[in-house]
Design goal:
single chain; about 0% helix; about 100 residues
Amino acid sequence: MLQLTYAPKGAKWMPFAFHEMFFPITKPELAETWTALGVGRSVGGARVDLAYMLRARFSGSGETDHVAWLAVVLPVPEPKRARPRPARDDDRTPEHETHIEHGN
């Protein structure tokens, strides 16, 4: 898939274009392509995309479809970071440690 999107920081409207090719695993030949031009709109953290898509199928009769494409892209929440626990007196390493070795 090749996708180009113009989405500067803070933009509400984001034009995009993409081209996607599909190859089946069982037969290594081009089976289908999707080519689209559209615009996305930022709505409360999510994005709604509307596009015109041309879908070409190469197997069988070689049909071409004209598709109105609508997608809703939901944000993935960032994982919560664990807060560092407060240090306790017994966790601290003394600045100077004395090591005593006992010999036999």
